[in-house]
Q: What sequence folds into this?
């Protein structure tokens, strides 16, 4: 049966609603046909995502977004082979909107469901192919640094769904550190992209901040956030215009510190895992998650490629932040293996 599926044109509708973006995509085998996202401006005034408002906005957006994805894919809904959806982790109210629609839509069409883990999907976006399959993909086993507002972890992948977390944050995530620093500096939400933009005009060596000394491959960012907060507080006492005068250098310095912490750990992971791979080859290194869009991290990885010979995989920007294309490719890979979901499965808020 699996061999038969590999010869078929498999169309999967994917739905992503884990946080504040309502997204839908259609994939034909491993090639994306459409990828549509509706953001939620309502959260800007609050400086962060308000769960209740997010779930209400998903209810308003989900039908227009899915309709647009199917139309852009230039298919009829009856051509769909399955429906994939984000089961978790994420905001429960938001997840329920996507999961409920996916279950009802699949039931109405008489096609199977595919439940997808959001964090796995971020990693598996690297297996989305161009129409001519000309783009390279990571070779198993490989390492992936998954960095977002809620998670920071290093994962060793031996197969699509055989993943081992070999390092993770013991407190806050790297993306949270970016957003907290932005809030301290009075920058608009979401703060990570704003810091990235301002950092390009700043000196990353101007200021230094406390760095964690965590054994092994685990991360910690709570101490860095506290160090940055106290530093800004003390400098503002001396000069109330300190932030205004040094904003670009502050952004460059905090970004450089976060990136250096990430690169140090992934470097240690490469060293540790090299001997585990036949022929002692260096493992491929991929990044995923919202912070993978950060130009400082991308540049640091390209520098490691040139200086250390790492084989680097960086997702396109539209696959870095939350999107439905990554749910679609994960759904397709599960479809091939016959890993269908029971409609009774409930969403989960925390990573399993």
A:
């Amino acid at each position: 049966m699996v061999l038969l599926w590999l010869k078929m044109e498999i169309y999967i509708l994917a739905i992503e609603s884990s946080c504040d973006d309502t997204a839908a995509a259609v994939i034909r085998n491993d090639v994306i046909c459409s990828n549509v996202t509706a953001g939620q401006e309502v959260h800007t005034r609050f400086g962060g995502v308000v769960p209740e408002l997010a779930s209400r906005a998903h209810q308003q957006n989900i039908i227009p977004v899915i309709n647009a994805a199917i139309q852009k894919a230039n298919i009829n809904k009856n051509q769909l082979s399955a429906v994939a959806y984000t089961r978790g982790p994420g905001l429960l109210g938001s997840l329920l909107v996507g999961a409920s629609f996916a279950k009802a839509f699949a039931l109405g069409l008489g096609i199977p469901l595919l439940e997808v883990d959001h964090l796995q999907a971020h990693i598996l976006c690297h297996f989305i192919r161009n129409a001519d399959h000309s783009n390279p993909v990571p070779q198993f086993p490989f390492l992936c640094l998954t960095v977002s507002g809620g998670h920071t972890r290093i994962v060793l992948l031996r197969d699509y769904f055989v993943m081992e977390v070999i390092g993770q944050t013991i407190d806050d995530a790297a993306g949270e550190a970016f957003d907290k620093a932005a809030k301290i500096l009075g920058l608009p939400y979401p703060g990570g992209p704003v810091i990235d933009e301002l950092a390009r005009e700043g000196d990353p060596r101007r200021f230094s901040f406390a760095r964690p000394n965590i054994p092994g491959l685990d991360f910690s960012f709570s101490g860095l956030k506290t160090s940055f907060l106290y530093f800004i507080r003390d400098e503002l006492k001396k000069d109330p215009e300190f932030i205004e005068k040094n904003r670009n250098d502050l952004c460059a310095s905090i970004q450089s510190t976060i990136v250096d912490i990430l690169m140090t750990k992934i470097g240690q992971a490469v060293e540790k895992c090299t001997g585990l791979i036949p022929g002692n080859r260096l493992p491929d290194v991929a990044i995923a998650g919202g912070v993978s869009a950060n130009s400082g991290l991308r540049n640091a990885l390209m520098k490691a490629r040139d200086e250390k010979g790492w084989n680097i995989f960086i997702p396109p920007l539209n696959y870095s932040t939350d999107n439905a294309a990554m749910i679609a490719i994960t759904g397709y890979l599960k479809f091939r293996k016959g890993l269908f979901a029971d409609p009774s499965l409930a969403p989960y808020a925390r990573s399993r």
Notes: DSSP finds ten helices and ten strands in the chain. The first strand starts at residue 11 and ends at 16. The beta strands are 11-16, 22-28, 31-38, 82-88, 113-117, 142-147, 152-159, 162-168, 284-288, 312-313.
